Prior knowledge:
- The chain is an alpha+beta fold.
- It has helices spanning 30-36, 82-86, 90-93, 116-123, and strands spanning 8-9, 14-16, 23-28, 39-43, 50-51, 56-62, 66-70, 75-80, 102-106.
- It has a 6-stranded antiparallel beta sheet.
- The chain starts with 7 loop residues before the first strand and ends with a helix.
Amino acid sequence: MSNPEKLRYTKEHEWLSDVVDGVATVGITEFAANALGDVVYAQLPEVGDTVTEGETCGELESTKSVSDLYSPVSGEIVESNQDVVDDPALVNTAPFEGGWLFKVRLSEEPKDALSFEEYTKLTAGN
């Protein structure tokens, strides 16, 4: 996951890994992590929860604000990153590695996923 060019993105600044055996890993982008500031609390969906693409599934609280976490896909949560719950700063220090948020078994492919190039254009100048 440490290669952002191989990920897919949303306009809400989440990233989505390649799907392996029906499961994808989700996190927020470095752009989003920097905009949030120092993340001090993470509420993530729990194993067994069902998430819906574009719907709120948790929240991240930083020293600046509280931000809803949106699921970039629909499916069932198969793992939440307990390391992020225990040390929310991982979202800032390693957003594409140890700071991933959850893994989800997809019920369908995402509708509006962006490529790295499209996401880079979206965030240019911000």
